[in-house]
Amino acid sequence: MPSFLKDLRRRSKASFKTDTTFSSSNGSHESSTNGTVPASVSSSTVDSALGPSSPEKPFNNKNRSSSNPSLGTAQGNDPPPPQPRLSIVTSQSSRYSAIGMSPATGTPKPLSTSPLAPRVLSISDNSWVHQKVLLIYGTVGDPAQQPLDGTLTVCHHQDTFPPTSWPVCDSHFKALLHLQPGPNRLRLDFTSPRIPSSHTALSHSSWVSINFLPLISAPPLQLVLLVAKDSPETFDAVPERVQREGNGIDTAIRKYRMAAYLWQAFTGEQMNRNGFGRRCFRYEEEWQPGTLSCRDMEAGQLRNEAKVHVIRLNKTVAEIRDLDIAQQYEPAKRKGELYSIAIGAVRAHFAPRAGQQQYVSAMFLDTHWDKETQTVRGHAALGGGVEGLKLAIFGSHSLQSYPTHIEEVVGIAFIELFTERDDLCHTWIEYVNSTNVMRQVTLTDADLRARLPEDRRTRKLKLKIFSGGGGDYTVEDFAQLTTKAARTKLPDGRLGFRSSKLGFSNMDGSSPEEVILESAHIQTKLLLKIKIYHGFCLDGLEFFYEDGTSQLFGKRGGKPGGSTFELDTKRAEVVMGFYLRAGVWIDGIQILTNLGRRSEIYGNATGGSGHMLVPPRGYSIAGVYGSCAQWVDGFGLIISR
């Protein structure tokens, strides 16, 4: 045997030095001559390994050694030399800034990481999930130092699904990802009108890899639409929506399907947050014209999406809408009959064999709101089952508000207008945009009243404002915000405007209070700190200036000395707004600054309900007003340009 073969046999595998190793999942290669083979990581992880941040979790390399021959066990008599420790940095998401992209393949080039690259916090890179639509959340930049608003665009794996846009508010975002079975590599792009974009290509982008494994061995949840035998095949909807999107059975199916995937995304996220992993039900799916994206309908794209079974009942519309079986009608005597109707129809349709288990969600299409009895007919929110069938039923009375496509999930924001003595809303303004969400609107008294019927235009006007996130805020009397009483003149001549006031201002001995901040109209005045006087409610606020003077709103009550919140004047920090807990009076208050800092909640952090007082864009805080009795029972802002 040649001598060099003997030497080769005596040497272990682990002692060999490799000339070149490869550690990129996107086709790019990195050279290594130090005798180690780095674990395979995504391009963004390689990039972030060069940065100053430390890993959020220790890197687990237990399952990687068997796949790499240089990490195998020694086969000779000599023990293998010790391996250098791998320096791998992991992150919650595959953070990678692509200032440029490969023109041929669209894969990222290994360029420097942008501090504004979106960072996913809710799921780790290369995680496994079992649902088609995944809810994620994360941040952009540093929310504590410089909160930003903008838009997050999700570009899906190999363009298998159209790009979708999601709002970024105060550097935080939520988004829905549409996944294909198998590995998915998605790009997240952040843009903002406040950030100049690069002239080359995408400036602030990151990558995240998610593996989607459908659990086809588990029984699916089947979606059913129950239709009366003489049904007109329409559902209740306001005229504007009927004109824009229709209210026929095809629209109902699209809305039902989209809502089902939102149920799945929400359930999976909540299970994970509570320590159960992303466990979730799956749907029965079929190859059909896609409806999850509005662009699929335009292009006629076929996709594997949830199947909605349309089951024709042997009952008439009148029988389904019988008040005596309406769950919400108090005098009804047969409130459970709708459930029996649904069970019979579902079992007859699917005809399950003995031993088979089915899970079904069924919606009655012919649900109707009865104005005279103030009752939803043809609706019951019930769940349970019999042997072999687990069933949940509900009505279609809210179907009009469901998004039809994934682009409409965040487009749902509207304002309801109520005049005096109105029990129901008859006039509203809806803001629907498939690519963005309204953050700020300007309303005038004349424009709002022009939308009302002529015989109601002089009545007191109440607004109920609904945000895209599902929150709402009520303005009891809009005129109070537009009359002369809502305006004040600042000492420098500028006009100030009073915001809506929180608290009822009706405690015994309550008297009005107002403070125009001297720092708002005297350039030489510098606000240094705010002292908050509180116990289990807010007693007062005192504003302290650099020259030693102060201004007091309310009283110096509560715990001795109060609490102090100091501003970082070296960084030009100023008060941007307040978060309050309030009901009849002001329970607690939190200070918000332009640097993204938030104080603790002083007072009762769980009292009343939460409210945010922040000036609109282009305005700043010029003072505060309200009322005080034993403690503060009214609080609002005075703002100016």
TrEMBL record:
List where Polar residues composition bias occurs: 37-47, 60-76
User: One Pfam family this chain carries?
Assistant: Jacalin
Listed under GO cellular component are: cytoplasm
Bias kind Low complexity: ranges: 20-36
Which segments carry the region annotation Disordered? 1-114
Lineage, top-rank taxon, reads Eukaryota
Residue ranges occupied by any Jacalin-type lectin domain in the UniProt entry: 499-641
Stored PANTHER family = MIP04191P, ZINC METALLOPROTEINASE-RELATED
- State the name under which the record lists this protein: Jacalin-type lectin domain-containing protein
Q: Which organism is it from?
A: Cryomyces minteri
